[in-house]
Amino acid sequence: MNALTKQEQVNIQEFEERLEQLDDEHREFQRQINQAQVELDATDQKLEDCNQFLVQRQADRLQYQSQLDLENETYAVDTDIYTQTANELQRELPIAEQGLSLIKSADFSDIKI
Questions:
Q1: What keyword terms does UniProt attach to this protein (predicted)?
Q2: pTM for this entry
Q3: Domain-by-domain residue ranges, the chain?
């Protein structure tokens, strides 16, 4: 019976040591899980921030594209007005030059006012 008690004590000691080892491993595993969760949460936050930044950049890009389109339309209208004015000037310039040469001609040089 003494041998059985001795074996029981050895078994209990081994069990308690194993239990302590498993508890240590569990604590380490739990610490690693917690660390991984913290890193995962940080990564998730970075992704969320990045997504918000991308949404804002997309909105900014659309706004700038609208402004650029408006400026291009305004430029096209202004260019068209300039072209029409230049064409009108080119069309009227020979008529004005003819009028000037007529006024400078001998027939008009004798007129006194």
A1: Coiled coil
A2: 0.55
A3: 2-101
